[in-house]
Amino acid sequence: MNVGLALYTLRDEMEKDFKGTLEKVKQVGYQGVEFAGFGDHSSKEVKAMLEEIGLEPWSSHVPLEKLRNELQSVITYHKEVGIPHIVCPYLTEEERQTKTNYFDLAEELEEIGNQVREAGMVLLYHNHDFEFDTFDDEFGLDILLRNTRTCNMALECDTFWVEYAGHKATEYLAVHENRVPIIHVKDMKDGEIPFAEVGEGKLDIKGIIEAAKAVGTKYFIVEQDVSERSPLESIEISFKNIQSM
Predict the structure, then answer these.
(1) Can you give the pLDDT at residue 1?
(2) pLDDT value of residue 41
(3) Rounded distance between C-alpha atoms, residue 219 and residue 213, angstroms
(4) Can you give the pLDDT at residue 16?
(5) Distance CA 72, CA 200 (A)
(6) CB–CB of 202/189 below 8 Å?
(7) Model-level pTM?
(8) Segments of the chain with pLDDT less than 70
(9) Quick one: pLDDT at residue 235?
(10) Distances from the Cα of 132 to the Cαs of 68, 127, 164, 169, in angstroms?
(11) How far apart are CA 219 and CA 31, in angstroms?
(12) Rg from Cα positions in the chain
């Protein structure tokens, strides 16, 4: 099982010490990483760091505005680093108010995904909970998926947010077979801060992982949006708990 880390979890650490933080991720035992920005580093510098440390670059979150306005430079940078998956990570409130918003976005992502595919990479969409708002009895997320071709856009399923929206991640994964190459593995607890280390919360992590494997998921990426411990301590707890499963 390929277990990686979403570097958004360590965003403050990455800002202070980019390479040193990557080294710590490798020391914990993670095989791959998902980027959420590259600081001021060139693609050659990032590639060299990863090769020296022994980490695989699996994916990268790129803001939608950048995909719209700087797509060719995004493609070039990611290709030079060797990142196979480019992920649209988030929608602003204005972009997700109506069914028409989702139809229009699907049209945009279809075209963006086509260019990403022609460059030899894959475009993915990463969900939160708001994509499970319904429009004529259909999830916003399903409008996006139904109106984009599988070859041009896949899903990075954030299983935490599926559950937070009141749905079963295992069931949602089951209806999207062969379209979910990556999932975010996150756990949930009660309280003001609902994020927990993987294996320390109330979600059926083992069941979610098995359901993801059954639909063809290859990459399992740990993420913790907010940690009440040191984020470095949190990622170690999550990794050890996954290994014990």
Answers:
(1) 84
(2) 98
(3) 9
(4) 97
(5) 41
(6) yes
(7) 0.97
(8) none
(9) 98
(10) 24, 9, 10, 12
(11) 10
(12) 17
Residue matched to tokens 């980027």: 35
Q: 150, 114 in Cβ contact below 8 A?
A: no
In the block, which residue shows the tokens 């990622």? 235
Half-sphere exposure of 36 (CA within 13 A, CB side): 17
Range of the domain at 239: 2-244
- The CATH number linked to 219 is 3.20.20.150
Q: What is the rounded distance in angstroms from the CA atom of residue 166 to the CA atom of residue 154?
A: 22
pLDDT at 14: 98
pLDDT tens profile 175-224: 999 999 999 999 999 999 999 999 999 999 999 999 999 999 999 999 99
How many domains does the chain contain in total?
1
Alpha-carbon gap, residue 224 to 138, rounded angstroms: 28
Contact 176, 141 (CB under 8 A): no
The upper half-sphere exposure of residue 158, i.e. CA atoms within 13 Å in the direction of its Cβ, equals 25
